């Protein structure tokens, strides 16, 4: 689903249209690509984020948005290609241990049996609160997380190197098995979290951040796994990380650092998910922390494969 931040000063209402450019010379199809509009997200009174769903009908396609205060529009975003289909796959069973994943839980417990299939890992709470996002989604606790791209912050070991360090998780299909053990959320939610660096070329190496690093953090508040933790049994969530701005929430800046320059469109963060990802315990009340444990097993994600020579039959 393409998104674009379309802005026009001094106008409350914006008119926009999404234009598709199929490369018909490359591939035949039964019908040309078409667009289905979805609700935009307002950005104050001066702009909005456009959400559209594109059906490619088998054609490699680029898209752009024309926008403006009248039907003449007068402005246009940069044309971008629709990504290829979800054909790249990553799976972690945790049968052998944490396998490069990390957590703020100091115990980092691993059990060789008793999971959905075999082994699993367990999160038993964080001894500290992360206040870096208090101006966004509030205080959070870091459950098991991984580095899927080219950044692996010291002293953590690299988790994986998906898609040559530049994975595209737009509309990715996620599967995660979880189990609550005497888990009392106390108002918290277990929600997907994405973090990416937009100026990765400024880092001196893969283990060190530049002083002017720009990190965008977004949480997929359109889906929560909290209800799956109440039964005390293994439950599996399967869902899409829809590239729809109405499904995501701004996660705030580092200790109120007001680094708003770090935040571009969600589309860009998901396209270049080069820093970390996990299911975060969010909305923590430091005076009433969650208690108990969350067990994790059988994590899978299906994401875009740029090694393919043609696009999918349907993409967002």
Can you walk me through this structure?
The chain has one helix at residues 266-271, and strands spanning 3-7, 15-22, 34-43, 47-55, 61-68, 75-76, 80-81, 86-92, 109-111, 120-123, 145-146, 173-184, 189-197, 215-219, 235-240, 249-250, 276-282, 291-304. It has two domains: 3-81, no CATH class; 86-304, Jelly Rolls (Sandwich). It is globular, with a radius of gyration of 21 Å. Residues 3-13, 24-28 and 310-316 have low confidence and may be disordered. It has 316 residues and is mostly beta strands. The strands form four sheets. Strands 8, 9, 10, 12, 15 and 18 form a six-stranded antiparallel β-sheet that branches. Strands 11-17-13-14-16 form a five-stranded antiparallel β-sheet.
List its traits:
five-stranded antiparallel sheet, 316 residues, six-stranded antiparallel sheet, mainly beta, 36% strand, 18 strands, Jelly Rolls, single chain
Q: In the CATH hierarchy, what is the superfamily of the largest domain?
A: Galactose-binding domain-like
Question: From N to C, what is the helix and strand string?
Answer: EEEEEEEEEEEEEEEEHEE
Sheet with most strands: 6 strands, antiparallel
Please state the oligomeric state of the protein chains shown: single chain
The averaged pLDDT comes out at 83
Which structural class do you get from the secondary structure elements?
A: mainly beta
Q: Radius of gyration over alpha carbons?
A: 21 Å
CATH class label of the largest domain:
Mainly Beta
The CATH architecture classification of the largest domain is Sandwich
CATH topology description of the largest domain:
Jelly Rolls
């Amino acid at each position: 689903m393409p998104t674009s931040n379309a802005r026009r000063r001094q106008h409350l209402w914006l008119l926009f249209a999404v234009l598709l450019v199929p490369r018909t010379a490359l591939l035949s199809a039964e019908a040309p690509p078409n667009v289905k509009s979805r609700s935009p997200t307002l950005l104050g009174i001066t702009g909005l984020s456009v959400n559209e769903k594109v059906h490619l009908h088998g054609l490699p396609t680029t898209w752009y948005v024309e926008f403006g205060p009248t039907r003449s529009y007068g402005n246009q975003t940069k044309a971008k290609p629709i990504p290829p289909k979800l054909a790249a796959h990553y799976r972690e069973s945790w049968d052998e241990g944490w396998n490069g994943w990390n957590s703020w839980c100091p115990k980092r417990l691993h059990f060789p049996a008793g999971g959905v299939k075999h082994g699993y890992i367990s999160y038993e709470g964080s001894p500290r609160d992360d206040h870096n996002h208090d101006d966004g989604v509030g205080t959070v606790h870091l459950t098991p997380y991984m580095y899927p791209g080219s950044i692996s912050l010291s002293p953590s070991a690299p988790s994986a190197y998906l898609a040559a360090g530049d994975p595209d998780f737009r509309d990715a299909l996620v599967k995660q098995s979880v189990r609550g053990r005497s888990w009392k959320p106390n108002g918290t939610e277990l929600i997907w979290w994405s973090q990416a660096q937009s100026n990765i070329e400024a880092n001196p190496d893969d283990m060190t951040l530049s002083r002017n690093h720009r990190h965008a953090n977004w949480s997929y508040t359109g889906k929560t796994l909290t209800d799956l933790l109440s039964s005390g049994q293994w439950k599996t969530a399967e869902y899409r990380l829809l590239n729809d701005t109405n499904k995501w929430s701004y996660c705030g800046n580092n200790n109120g650092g007001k680094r708003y320059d770090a935040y571009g469109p969600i589309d860009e963060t998901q396209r270049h998910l080069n820093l970390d990802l996990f299911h975060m315990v969010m909305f923590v009340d430091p005076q009433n922390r969650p208690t108990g444990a969350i067990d994790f097993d059988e994590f899978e994600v299906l994401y875009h494969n740029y090694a393919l020579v043609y696009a999918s039959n349907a993409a967002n």
